[in-house]
Amino acid sequence: MPMRPTADPVPQATIDASVRAALAEDVGAGDITARLIDEADTGRANLITREAMCLCGTAWFDAVFAQLDDRVRVEWTAADGDWVEAGAMLCSVTGPSRALLTGERCAMNFVQMLSGTATATCLSAKRFAGLSMQLLDTRKTIPGHRLAQKYAVRCGGGHNHRLGLYDAFLIKDNHIAAAGSVAVAIARARAIAPGAPVEVEVETLVQLEDAIAAGADIVMLDNFDDAAVTRAVGIAAAAGAARPKLEVSGSVDEARLAFLARAGIDYVSLGALTKHVHAVDLSMRYVSK
User: Fold this and answer.
1) How far apart are CA 7 and CA 207, in angstroms?
2) Dihedral through CA 125, CA 245, CA 261, CA 268, nearest 10?
3) Cα 102-106-110 angle, rounded to 5 deg
4) How far apart are CA 28 and CA 195, in angstroms?
5) Is the pTM of this model over 0.90?
6) Are 10 and 149 spatial neighbours (Cβ–Cβ below 8 Å)?
7) Which of 10, 13, 41, 168 qualifies as a FRET site for 70, CA 20 to 30 Å off?
8) Catalytic site residues?
9) pLDDT tens across 220-277, in order?
10) In whole angstroms, what is the distance from residue 156 CA to residue 117 CA?
């Protein structure tokens, strides 16, 4: 399931649709303030970051100006996934002044949001350096920006969990209760979509044993303390070839990361990567005509 480690780009059609929606809510019938500037004026503006960051969102930034005026040119000094220090110039934008002023905020909104996600992931991923575990995101994303934020996670060095409800099973307590048992839920999942990964969230070691016996691909250990984690890893290892991958979700500090890696946990998923977005502080300065 967590198996998209590279920063493959988001389809251009998805980016364009997102940008169209953003421009529609911001520009509406037209930018009346930009009309203060002569239509024939041209200029240049520089995009600067006020804080250290992992850059992400350049394609969205470009698309904003492409949709406003195809005469605008953007020259980047860094690429998505690059770490840049505070005060660095990220790009230079040249073209009709009205387009530069109209697109400024919309374009920066995309970069500051996606760079915020990439930066949080990059800082978290550093804690995984040298460990055998993978850092995963979750579905706790900003509505309408799922693919963009998951791309940002990849740019920051993390890995994606399932994209949505359609590409993998994640059987939780309510699913188990409604189905009747872990075994029944997994059997139905295999019948519905034989090729889809099946993950089960368990709250007890008994449920873990049931999930292994039923053939789960991944088991998420919900609120297991260290002693329970150690026992869970032993139970999974005893399954031999039937051993599922093991995932721990939630807030995990530095000390526990090392323990989980030593114990044999495969994945740690953090909803905060995409849920708690700290927008990077950017500035776009109009510097000349």
Assistant:
1) 35
2) 40
3) 155
4) 45
5) yes
6) no
7) 10
8) 105, 140, 172, 201, 222
9) 999 899 999 999 999 999 999 999 999 998 778 888 988 999 999 999 999 999 999 8
10) 8
